[in-house]
Each structure stands twice: as structure tokens, then as C-alpha cells.
Design brief:
Blueprint (H helix, E strand, L loop, with lengths): L6 E4 L9 H15 L5 H5 L6 H10 L9 H19 L11 H10 L3 E4 L6 H8 L7 E2 L13 H10 L6 E5 L2 H9 L3 E5 L10 E3 L7 H14 L1
Parallel strand pairs: 1-2, 1-4, 2-3, 4-5, 5-6
Helix pairs in contact: 1-4, 3-4
């Protein structure tokens, strides 16, 4: 078995750029419209999961959770997305997290395929605003994913499209649900955040700027040797 990876699949929010705050503000605005307080603690439960799953968790936090039809849920999710897209319209390449542009260049120079596996349906728009749309071989269409993270489908979809075995893939995430999805896909998990939150990560850094292709691939080699 090769000790060299073939592909790296990146989450978007909190990994390539920090749009997480925009998501929080958009959910907070929708919550206020519904009479539900969306605080930082509740927002932590929304990271890495789909828009509808996030909405379900917010509604469940209401003093009296409302019972809504699928159509009403979709309408509220669209309202949140309208708030979010208005907020992210102003992002530029300056909003790429420190170290990420150099990391992408290092991985590309090493011959790896690159993909984005995000729960956000706005991923193509955000990548275009960041001028990173040409940096990736594939962007998972979140609208076609049947099961959101922590289900592995987002990551297996990317690997299948790239025609790379799952064990030859590296996933990069900042959310516990995302790291769990990577591990359930049988891939090597790189986590950005705290050890307490990202316990399942195979390799962990506290900030994106601390990532390097050399260290990631060395850690991957040690992992695959033990497999």
C-alpha cells in the first residue's frame, strides 16, 4: 500500500476562510425573527451540518418547538441563506485564512488532487469571491448530498469523483461532525481546532496557518503504515 496520499478534501467554512461568523449572524437574525435566541453555545451545534439540520436544531431550542411542514422549513432555510449571502457578498481573497493559499500550492506541486467538501450550498459562490474556484479539481454539490455530516457521503462523493481510494484521501475539517465524517469514510483526518472538540482527528493543529504539506503527508505516512 502506498504511503503517499493522492487527494486532499477541504471543508470550506473555518478551513479555507472564516465565514463561520457570517453563518452565526445569519442564524441569529433568523432566530430573532422567530423569537428564538441563537447564542454561541447553540451555534457550536450547527457547525459542519446542513442548513436544514441546523434549522431543526434551532427550532428544537425554542421554549415550545413549532411543528412545521417541509415547505415551511425550506422557506425558513431560504430566509437564512438570504441573510448569509448578503453578508458574504463583501468577501475578497484577503479573507482566505493565513497559510491556506501557500498550502494549496504545496499540495498541488506535490501532485495531489484537491477538492472541497462543504455542507454549504454557497461553496461555489464563496470560492469565486475568494478567487479559489480554479484551485480545486472538484467541489461537492451540497444540494445533491442525501446525508449530511457526520455521515461520510460528502467525502466519499469527492473521492469517487476524483477516482481515488478512500484510504488515499486526506480530509481537512474544523468541526467535530466533519472529522467524524472523514473517519467514517476511512480517510486520514486533519483537524483545525482544539483536541477536546476534535478528538477523532489523526493530525491536529490549532490554526490553519500551522498546516504544512510536509507535516501533513508525514503524519499520513505514519497513519497508513499502521493500517
Amino acid at each position: 500500500m502506498s504511503t503517499f496520499p493522492q487527494a486532499v478534501i477541504f471543508d470550506l467554512d473555518g478551513v479555507l476562510t472564516d465565514t463561520a461568523e457570517f453563518h452565526y449572524l445569519a442564524w441569529k437574525q433568523l432566530g430573532a425573527e422567530l423569537g428564538i435566541e441563537v447564542d454561541k453555545a447553540l451555534n457550536e451545534q450547527l457547525k459542519g451540518v446542513s442548513r436544514l439540520q441546523s434549522l431543526e436544531r434551532i427550532l428544537a431550542a425554542a421554549p415550545v418547538p413549532p411543528v412545521l411542514t417541509a415547505e415551511e422549513m425550506e422557506h425558513l432555510a431560504a430566509q437564512k441563506n438570504a441573510h448569509y449571502t448578503a453578508l458574504i457578498a463583501s468577501i475578497t481573497p484577503n479573507d482566505i485564512l493565513p497559510g491556506i493559499a501557500a498550502l494549496l500550492q504545496e499540495l498541488r506541486a506535490a501532485g495531489l488532487k484537491l477538492a472541497v467538501g462543504s455542507a454549504s450550498r454557497n461553496a461555489p459562490f464563496v470560492l469565486e469571491r475568494l478567487e479559489l474556484d480554479s484551485a480545486f479539481d472538484y467541489v461537492v454539490d451540497a444540494g445533491r448530498i442525501q446525508r449530511g455530516k457526520p455521515d461520510p457521503e460528502t467525502f466519499t462523493n469527492a473521492a469517487d469523483h476524483l477516482k481515488v481510494p478512500y484510504e488515499s484521501c486526506i480530509g481537512v475539517e474544523d468541526a467535530a461532525a466533519g472529522v467524524e465524517a472523514i473517519k467514517r469514510a476511512g480517510m486520514f483526518a486533519v483537524g483545525i481546532g482544539s483536541a477536546q472538540t476534535l478528538r477523532q482527528a489523526d493530525y491536529l493543529v490549532t490554526a490553519a496557518e500551522l498546516l504544512s504539506a510536509e507535516h501533513i503527508m508525514a503524519a499520513y505516512s505514519r497513519w497508513i503504515d499502521k493500517a
